[in-house]
Design goal:
The protein contains 6 helices and 4 strands; from the N terminus they run E-H-E-H-E-H-H-E-H-H. With about 110 residues, the chain is α/β, with parallel strands linked by helices. Helix 1 links the parallel strand 1 and strand 2. The longest helix is centred in the C-terminal third of the chain and has 13 residues. The radius of gyration is 13 Å and the shape is globular. It starts with a strand and ends in a 6-residue tail after the last helix.
């Protein structure tokens, strides 16, 4: 199983350079793409840009019924979050640790 990211085209490039599978969506198609990602059974963790979906769990609530995987993670848009010079890697590690309970190497 993999880690997937659902985000905008510009941010997706950065995730791909880090070795993650990033899918691109516009806000109007984000819920449908997220549903497809969940149903594919390929992902253990799916991070969703909050600009696309404020509450990814609610968007796929019906599809997730009875499933424990994938874990859905709402992700603040990195362009907004780090425009002030913050450390994206430290932020992501902390966010994942708080969500799933352990560290991953990015």
């Amino acid at each position: 199983m993999r880690i997937g990211v659902l985000t905008d085209a510009e941010t997706a490039s950065g995730f791909r350079m880090a070795g993650l599978e990033a899918l691109v969506a516009a806000p109007e198609e984000a819920a449908e793409k997220l549903t497809q990602m969940v149903q594919s059974n390929r992902y253990a963790l799916i991070a969703v840009d909050e600009r696309l979906l404020k509450d990814p769990n609610k968007a796929v609530e019906r599809v997730m019924r009875g499933r424990s995987v994938p874990v859905l993670l709402s992700l603040p848009n990195l362009m907004d979050t780090f425009s002030g010079g913050g450390d994206a890697k430290v932020y992501m590690r902390r966010l994942v640790r708080e969500t799933i309970g352990f560290d991953i190497k990015l």
